[in-house]
Amino acid sequence: MSEAFYTDKARIRASFERAASSYDSAAVLQREVSDRMAERLSYIKHQPQVILDAGTGTGYGAAQLRAQYPEAQVVELDLAHAMLCASRERQRAGDGLLKKLFKRSQPWQVCADVERLPLADNSVDMIWSNLTIQWVNIPDSVFSEFERVLKPDGMLMFSTLGPDTLFELREAFGGIDQATHVNQFIDMHDLGDALMRVGFAEPVMDMDKIVLTYDKVRDVMHDLKAIGAHNATRDRSRGLMGKQAWRRVEASYEARRRDGTLPATYEVVYGHAWKSTLKKKGNTLPDGRQVIEFVKPGSWPGKV
C-alpha cells in the first residue's frame, strides 16, 4: 500500500474518542457484520476460557460473546477510552438490580493499540475482532501480536474491509485535487498471505458485499463521521473543501442514484485461523509453499 494512503493513528484515536457518543446511532454496518460473525462462530467447535475482543467499540460484539460463552472471561480492548466507557455504560443500563448484585464476572477493559497488545504470550484462547484491522497499515504487525498472545490451538476470528469499500465515494472524489479523500483497504488475498507469514494454521477467508442506501451524499459523510470512520489517511486534505468542488462530488455521486436512493458499498472480508505449533502436511505444497483455503460466501467450515 502506498504511504499516501497510510492511516494516521493519532487521528484514528481522536476520531473514535469523539464518536463514542454518536457511534451506536450510526453503526448499522458494524452490528450487521457482528451478527454475521456470531452466526459463523456458532458452527465452530471451540470452548474458550479467555476471549479478547480486539477493537470492542461500544461493546456490541462483547455482549454477543458473553451470551455465547457465559463461562468465559471477555477482555474488551479498544484504542479509544471513550468507547470503553460507552461499553461500560451499555452494560450497566442492560443489567437489572439482581444481575448487578450477583453477576459472577465482569469483562475486563483495556485501552490499548492492537499492534502493541499489553497481554502476556499464550494468554487468551480466542481473539474476536470486528471491523478493526482495516485501520492497521501493515497486517503482519497486528497478526503477529494476535499470534503471540493466543494459546496453542487458540482461534482468531475477524472481519475487515476490502478495497471495493466505498468505491462510489472514492470515484466521486476522483480528480477533485491531489489529496486522498477515502481510506484505502487491503485485499483479502494479501490478508491471507499475512496470516500464513506469521504462522497461523488453517486460515479460511471469504467475502460479502453489503450495500447501505442514503438519501443524500452528505448523509453518507455524516454516518462515517458519526462512527469515527471518516478519512484518516496521511495525505488527506487539511482544509475545508470549496463549495464548487463539493458540488462536483455530489453531481458525480448522484449519477449512481437508483430507485430514489444512493448506494454505499462495503466489501466485508471475514477470516478465521488457528494458532498451532504443528505444521500440517496438508497445508504445504511439495516445494514448501503453504496453501491458503478460500471459500464461497455462505460456506463457513469449522474445526471439528
From TrEMBL:
<keyword id="KW-0093">Biotin biosynthesis</keyword>
<keyword id="KW-0808">Transferase</keyword>
<protein>
    <recommendedName>
        <fullName>Malonyl-[acyl-carrier protein] O-methyltransferase</fullName>
        <ecNumber>2.1.1.197</ecNumber>
    </recommendedName>
</protein>
<dbReference type="InterPro" id="IPR011814">
    <property type="entry name" value="BioC"/>
</dbReference>
<comment type="similarity">
    <text>Belongs to the methyltransferase superfamily.</text>
</comment>
<dbReference type="GO" id="GO:0032259">
    <property type="term" value="P:methylation"/>
</dbReference>
<keyword id="KW-0949">S-adenosyl-L-methionine</keyword>
<feature type="domain" description="Methyltransferase type 11">
    <location>
        <begin position="52"/>
        <end position="158"/>
    </location>
</feature>
<comment type="function">
    <text>Converts the free carboxyl group of a malonyl-thioester to its methyl ester by transfer of a methyl group from S-adenosyl-L-methionine (SAM). It allows to synthesize pimeloyl-ACP via the fatty acid synthetic pathway.</text>
</comment>
<dbReference type="GO" id="GO:0102130">
    <property type="term" value="F:malonyl-CoA methyltransferase activity"/>
</dbReference>
<keyword id="KW-0489">Methyltransferase</keyword>
<dbReference type="GO" id="GO:0009102">
    <property type="term" value="P:biotin biosynthetic process"/>
</dbReference>
<comment type="pathway">
    <text>Cofactor biosynthesis; biotin biosynthesis.</text>
</comment>
<dbReference type="InterPro" id="IPR050602">
    <property type="entry name" value="Malonyl-ACP_OMT"/>
</dbReference>
<dbReference type="GO" id="GO:0008757">
    <property type="term" value="F:S-adenosylmethionine-dependent methyltransferase activity"/>
</dbReference>
<dbReference type="InterPro" id="IPR029063">
    <property type="entry name" value="SAM-dependent_MTases_sf"/>
</dbReference>
<dbReference type="Pfam" id="PF08241">
    <property type="entry name" value="Methyltransf_11"/>
</dbReference>
<dbReference type="GO" id="GO:0010340">
    <property type="term" value="F:carboxyl-O-methyltransferase activity"/>
</dbReference>
<dbReference type="InterPro" id="IPR013216">
    <property type="entry name" value="Methyltransf_11"/>
</dbReference>
